[in-house]
Amino acid sequence: MATRESTLPLAPRARSIPTVGFRYFLHRYARNRLALVGLWVVLIVFVSAALAPLISPADATKTNFGALLLPPSREHPLGTDDLGRDILSRIIYGARTSLLAGVISVGLALAMGLPLGLISGYFRGHLDNVLMRFTDALLSFPFLVLALAIAAILGAGLGKAMIAIGIVFTPGFIRLSRAQVLSERERSYVEAARAMGANDRRIILQHILPNSLSPVLVQASLAMAVAITAEATLSFLGLGTQPPTPSWGSMLNIAQAYLSRAPWMAWWPGLAIFLTVLSLNLVGDGLREVLDPRLR
Amino acid sequence: MTHYIARRLMLTVPVLLLVTVIVFTLINMIPGDPALVFIGGEAGQDAVEALRKQMGLDRPLFVRYVIWLNRLIHGDFGKSVRDGRPVLDVLLLKLPVTVELAIVALTVAWAIAIPAGVLAAWKRQSVVDYTATTVALAGISIPNFWLGIMLIYLFAVNLRLLPPSGYIEPWIDPVRNIKLMIMPATVLGTALAALVMRLLRSSMLEVLGTEFIRTAHAKGLSDRIVIARHALKNAMIPVATVMGLQLGGLLGGAVITEQIFAVPGIGRLAVESIFTRDYPMVQGVVLFSAVAIVFVNFSVDVVYSFLDPRIRLVEDKT
Asked: Hey, of B13, B37, B274, B298, which one would you mutate to test binding to chain A, going by the most A CBs within 10 A of its CB?
C-alpha cells in the first residue's frame, strides 16, 4: 500500500518529461536555420513522393515518339528524355525509388545492427569478440565495392540493391550501438534497475536502449543520405532499379549518351539527388548538434 | 615497440582470415553450378560430374575453403573466365593506373583541404569559415558520378578544353596523361577534400583550445607560427589516422570515376567483370581491395605509434 502511494505522485511527472524534452528539442533544432531548411526540403521530397500520382503532370513511363529530347518548355517544364517521357514526372516518381531505397536499406541495417550491438555490448565475452572481429573484417571492404559485389551476386533490381546496401551498413550500426551500451551499462541507473530485480532483457530494452538511441538516430539520418547516393550509384551502373521504373541514378546513366544534344537530361536527376542528400546531411548535422551531449 | 607491433599483428591476422571467409562465402552464394557455367549448357551429365570432381566441387565446403586459401597464400587467385589470364596478373597490370589516379586525387584533396580547414578553424565563425563549411557539405553531398558528367559537359563538350575520357601512360604522353587525369582526379578528390577539411577544422578547434597553445601565444609567438608549428602538427594526428578509411573511399570512388572517364584501372575492372559474370575476377578485386585496406590500417597504426608514443603506451597498459 505504502509503495503504491509513493509511486503515484511520481508517475505524471515522469510522463511529462518527454514532452518538455521534445519541445526543448524542437526549440534547439529550430535555432539551426540550415537544419530547418534541410528538414523542409526532406519533407517536400517525402510529400511529393507520396503524392506522385496526383502532382506529376504526365505518366512517368509513357513514351511519346513525337516529343523526343525536347528542351524545357511550358508543356514539359524540365524537358523530355530519349523516349519522349516527361522528365519532371520521372523526377517526382524517382523520389519514390530514392526514398524507398534510403528508408528500407537503413531500416534493414538498423534491424540487424541494433540488436546485435546491444547484445554484444551488454554481454561482452566471446560473442562480443567474435562479432567485433567480424565487423572489423566487413568494415575493411570499401563500401561501394562490397555493395557492388553483393548486388552482382544477388542480381540486378531495386529490392536486391536495398538488401546489398543494408548489409554493408550493418557493421557500422553494430559498432555504434555497442559503444553506446558499453558506456551506458556502467551508469548507476542500470545498477539501480538491477538492484530492483530487473532482468537483462528488461534492463536492455527499457533502460539501456532508450538512452542509447540519440547517436543511432543521428547516424541513421546520415546513413540515409549515403544509402540514397548508393542506390543512385548502383542504378547508374545498371545494377539497381531496372527500366522503365524511374530512378534518378538510371536517368543519369541514360543522360550520359545525350550530353551534347539534351544536357537537361543530366541536370535534373543529379540536382534532385544532390538536394535530397544535402538536406538529409543538414538534418543529420542538426540532430547531432541537439542530441550529442558533447557539443552542448 | 616490438611488443606493440606484435599485438597489433595478432589483431590483424584474424581480420584477414575473416575477410577471406567473407569473400569465399560471397562467391559460393552465386546461384548456379560453376562447373556447368564453365563447361556450357550442352555438355552431358557425366562430363559435368567429371569437371565438378576435377574442380573439387564435390568436396565439403570447409575443405574447399582450406584448399582455396592455400592457393591464395601462394599467389594463385584463379583465372579469368573471360580470357583465361591469371587474375593476379590482370590486377597488377591495372593497379598502377588506379594508384596514379588515387595519388593525384589525394594531392588535389589535401592541397584544398588543409589550407581550408586551418583557415576555417583559425577564423572561426567568420565568412571564410561559413563558406568553407558550406562548400564542404556540398562536396560531401554531391554524387560523384553527377559531378563527373557535369565536368565532361562543361570542359569537354562545351568549352572543349579537356579530352572527355580515356587514359594514356605518363611515359608515352605526359601532357595528355595530365589532361586526362584532371577531371577524374577532381571528381575522386572532391568528397575526400570535404571530409578532410571538416575533420581538420574540428580537430584544429580542439587543439587551439588547449593550454600549450595559450603558452605559445604567451611566449609572444605570432599566430602564424603557433598555427603552423604547434597547432597543425597536433591537429593532423586524427586526420592522418583516417588514411585507411580514405583509401576505402578512394577505391570505392575509383569504381564510378574510372567507369565514367574510361580509365582502365581496378575500379573499371570490377564493373566490367561484374557485367561479364567473370566471378574469379570479381573475387580478386574485392579481396585485393580489402587486404590493401587492412594493411594500410596496420601500417598507419604502427607509424603512429612511432610518432605519438601515447598510443602505444596506452595500448600496452591495457
From this structure: B274
Burial of B206 (0-12, 13-18, 19+ CB in 10 A): middle
Shortest Cα distance from A53 to chain B (angstroms)?
27
Contact A172, A109 (CB under 8 A): yes
Could you give the 3-state DSSP secondary structure of residue A99?
A: helix
Residue B270 to residue A148, Cβ atoms within 8 A: yes
Please compute the mean of the pLDDT values over residues A196-224 and round it to a whole number: 90
* DSSP label of A258: G
* For range B102-118, the mean pLDDT: 91
3 state DSSP class of B152: helix
Q: How confident is the model at residue A278 (pLDDT cuts 50, 70, 90)?
A: very high
Contact call for B157 and A239, based on CB within 8 A: no
> CA-CA distances (angstroms) from residue A197 to A194, A244, B28?
5, 58, 47
As a dihedral over the C-alpha atoms of residue B216, residue B218, residue B224, residue B226, rounded to 10 degrees, the angle is 10
In sequence order, the 6+-apart residues with CB closer than 8 A to the CB of B225 are B216
Give B155-178 pLDDT, tens digit per residue: 999 999 999 899 999 999 999 999
Q: What region, left, alpha or beta, does residue B78 occupy, with left being phi > 0 and alpha being psi -120 to 50 degrees? A: left
Question: CB B290 to CB A270 under 8 A?
Answer: no
Q: Cell 569473400 maps to which residue?
A: B23
- Taking contacts as CB-CB distances below 8 angstroms, the residues of chain B near A153 are 26, 29-30
Alpha helices by DSSP H, listed for A185-208, are 188-195, 200-202
Per-residue pLDDT reduced to its tens digit, B185-235: 999 999 889 989 999 998 898 888 888 888 888 888 888 888 888 888 888
Question: What is the distance between the terminal CA atoms of chain A, rounded to a whole angstrom?
Answer: 42
Say what the pLDDT of residue B214 is. Answer: 87
pTM of this prediction?
0.88
Continuous segment of H or E residues that includes residue B14: helix B2-28
B150 and A133 within 8 Å at the Cβ level: the answer is no
Q: What's the pLDDT tens digit per position in A3-34? A: 444 444 444 444 444 445 677 788 888 888 88
Chain B residues in contact with A282 by the CB 8 A cut-off are 137
Distance from CA of B225 to the nearest CA of A (A): 29
Question: How much is the pLDDT for A4?
Answer: 44
Nine-digit cell at A184?
551506458
Contact B146/A259, CB-based, under 8 Å? no
Q: Which of B252, B143, B253, B139 is nearest to A273 (CA)?
A: B143
If you ran DSSP here, which 8-state letter would residue B167 be given?
-
Whole-angstrom distance, CA of residue A90 vs CA of residue A85: 8
Residues of A within 8 A of B268 (CB-CB) are none
Residues B230, B213 contacting (CB under 8 angstroms) = yes
Helix %, strand %, coil % of chain A (to 5) = 75, 0, 20
CA A31 to CA A24: how far, in whole Å?
Answer: 11
Residues sharing a CB contact under 8 Å with residue B153, sequence separation 6 or more, in sequence order: A259, A263, A266
As a whole number of angstroms, the distance between CA A286 and CA A273 comes to 20
**What is the ipTM metric for this complex?**
0.86
3-state secondary structure of B48: helix
Residues in chain A: 296
